[in-house]
């Protein structure tokens, strides 16, 4: 397995460009299935494993998709299947987002039930509740969900028990081709929802209110391929903001949109980090001691759960103790045990973690337990004494474009070691040890 090797101790500085948002592009690619005619041309598509996976889902359904240099072209005209196998859903839960578009366009969809994952059980009851309210018949069996509707889905009012991002997106997509108007109440308000609505509207949909708690979708008869540029990844941007703060560095994050990062900016400022916002990005500078602060994750516009582990990494270097509360996912503290391997002093009490600041951190061999945990371990490695080896990179590759290269360009001592290179290095080290033993033995004989 590949590994990332980080040597801590460098203050990062320079400029880094944010890629397109993973969590925006995945629903957008699923939504491309809604176009009965015409090609969609999607710009700023990040080269991520997750994008590859959802691309494979689309082609497995019969769509044509090509990716070149950040531009994804999708022609869904000839889609002729409505079944998505477990093999593809298993790799990435967001594949489940094809259900709404398939059901709306073809009147049926058979999608494998997504399993649980490291951060929580992640049920899909709110997605299904929405489809049922719109007239779909749902059957669950043998690991699949079958959804079907006679004629078109019917517009209706749907109140979500939880402001779920995925459920809001799936229902919003389904509603675009429904008969009549659908109103989603207690809708998720994440910037990625707004980006999806913008793409849907470019396709000919009539979606209003995205970004607020109430979204209205007036159904139309047909949608067409459209041109769209994906928003910058606020979580990637936030991760680089933490990289600047944790190394007491100075980084300009090009493309970061301040309005998408309000809670992260507010918390960093509370700690004493200097943040300057302009229309092209965010400039983050930190020096000396940073104040400990408490953090509680919440749906947008609250503090994002996808920044929780990275922020916890920073709090380990702050002056004092902090409480980090995770309210979105029930099992998103898996990184804590890995942090402890690096010398962290953190105590978990239910859904909160008490983090001691001013910790002496030491490099260790650690494993990413989920995508953001992987990024957080690298952040800790940047300020730990000695060498940190991070494994489990398949998680990181799902959501960060060339994280190693981008951090290296900011001055970090970081490399990615492929499995083969690692084997070669181990062989060379063994050979070196053997030869130095030989010399020692010879010396002792002399
Ligand atoms: C691809 C993508 O965009 N992923 C993001 C999306 O995931 P995702 O869309 O899966 O997250 P949700 O907003 O749906 O989940 C939030 C909470 O609601 C629960 N829930 C969700 C749906 C449902 O039907 N029933 C239910 O109980 C979940 O278990 C979780 O505890 O939003 C999360 C919350 O910001 C982020 O961490 C993920 O990075
Ligand atoms: C949890 C995440 O993603 P996903 O919903 O794709 O698992 C994430 O991006 O941190």
From TrEMBL:
Tell me if Cell division is a UniProt keyword of this record.
yes
Record-listed UDP-N-acetyl-alpha-D-glucosamine binding positions: 93, 122-126, 306, 328
Q: Which reaction does it catalyse?
A: phosphoenolpyruvate + UDP-N-acetyl-alpha-D-glucosamine = UDP-N-acetyl-3-O-(1-carboxyvinyl)-alpha-D-glucosamine + phosphate
State one Pfam family annotation. EPSP_synthase
Q: What is its EC number?
A: 2.5.1.7
- Coiled-coil ranges per the record? 407-434
InterPro entries annotated for this entry?
Enolpyruvate_Tfrase_dom, Enolpyruvate_Tfrase_sf, MurA_subfamily, RNA3'P_cycl/enolpyr_Trfase_a/b, UDP_GlcNAc_COvinyl_MurA
Q: Does the keyword Cytoplasm apply?
A: yes
Keyword terms, alphabetized: Cell cycle, Cell division, Cell shape, Cell wall biogenesis/degradation, Coiled coil, Cytoplasm, Peptidoglycan synthesis, Pyruvate, Transferase
Q: What SUPFAM superfamilies would the database entry show?
A: EPT/RTPC-like
Enolpyruvate transferase domain residues: 7-407
For binding phosphoenolpyruvate, which residues are annotated in this chain's numbering? 22-23
UniProt pathway annotation: Cell wall biogenesis; peptidoglycan biosynthesis
Q: Where are the transmembrane segments?
A: none
Q: What is its main location?
A: cytoplasm
From the Swiss-Prot or TrEMBL record, state where the protein is found: Cytoplasm
Q: Which GO terms describe its molecular function?
A: UDP-N-acetylglucosamine 1-carboxyvinyltransferase activity
Sites where 2-(S-cysteinyl)pyruvic acid O-phosphothioketal occurs are at 117
Residues the record marks as active site = 117 (proton donor)
The entry assigns this protein to a family as follows: Belongs to the EPSP synthase family. MurA subfamily.
Q: What does this protein do?
A: Cell wall formation. Adds enolpyruvyl to UDP-N-acetylglucosamine.
Return the protein name.
UDP-N-acetylglucosamine 1-carboxyvinyltransferase
Which organism does this sequence originate in?
Answer: Ammoniphilus resinae
């Amino acid at each position: 397995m590949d590994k990332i090797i980080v040597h801590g101790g460098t203050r990062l500085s320079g400029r880094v460009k944010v890629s397109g948002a993973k969590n925006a592009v995945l629903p957008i690619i699923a939504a491309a299935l809604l176009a009965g005619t015409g090609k969609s041309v999607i710009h700023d598509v990040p080269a991520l494993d997750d994008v590859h996976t959802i691309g494979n889902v689309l082609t497995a359904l019969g769509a044509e998709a090509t990716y070149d240099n950040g531009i994804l072209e999708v022609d869904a005209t000839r889609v002729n299947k409505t079944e998505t196998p477990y093999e593809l859903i298993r790799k990435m839960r967001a594949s489940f987002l094809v259900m709404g578009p398939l059901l709306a366009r073809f009147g049926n969809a058979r999608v494998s039930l997504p399993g649980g994952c490291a951060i929580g059980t992640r049920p899909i009851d709110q997605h299904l509740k929405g489809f049922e309210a719109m007239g779909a018949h749902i059957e669950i069996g043998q690991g699949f969900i079958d959804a079907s509707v006679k004629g078109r889905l019917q517009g209706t009012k749907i109140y979500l028990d939880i402001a779920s991002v995925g459920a809001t997106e799936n229902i919003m997509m389904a509603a675009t081709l429904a008969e009549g108007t659908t109103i989603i109440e207690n809708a998720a308000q994440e910037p990625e929802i707004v980006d999806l609505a913008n793409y849907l509207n470019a396709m000919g949909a009539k979606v209003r209110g995205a970004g607020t708690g109430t979204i209205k979708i007036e159904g139309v008869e047909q949608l067409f391929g459209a041109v769209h540029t994906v928003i910058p990844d606020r979580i990637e941007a936030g991760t680089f903001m933490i990289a600047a703060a944790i190394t007491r560095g100075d980084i300009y994050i090009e493309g970061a949109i301040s309005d998408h990062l309000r809670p992260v900016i507010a918390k960093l400022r509370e700690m004493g980090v200097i943040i300057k916002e302009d229309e092209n990005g965010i400039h983050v500078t930190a020096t000396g001691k940073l104040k400990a602060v408490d953090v509680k994750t919440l749906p947008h516009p609250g503090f994002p759960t996808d920044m929780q582990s990275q922020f916890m990494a920073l709090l380990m270097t702050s002056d004092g103790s902090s409480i980090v509360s995770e309210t979105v996912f029930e099992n998103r503290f898996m990184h804590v045990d890995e942090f402890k391997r690096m010398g962290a002093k953190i105590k978990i009490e239910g859904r909160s973690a008490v983090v001691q600041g001013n910790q002496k951190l030491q490099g260790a061999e650690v494993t990413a337990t989920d995508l953001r945990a992987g990024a957080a371990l690298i952040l800790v490695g940047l300020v730990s004494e000695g060498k940190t080896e991070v494994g489990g990179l398949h998680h990181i590759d799902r959501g960060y474009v060339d994280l190693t290269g981008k951090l290296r360009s900011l001055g970090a001592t970081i490399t990615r070691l492929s499995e083969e290179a690692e084997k070669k290095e181990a062989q060379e080290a063994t050979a070196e040890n053997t030869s130095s033993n030989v010399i020692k033995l010879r010396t002792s004989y002399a």
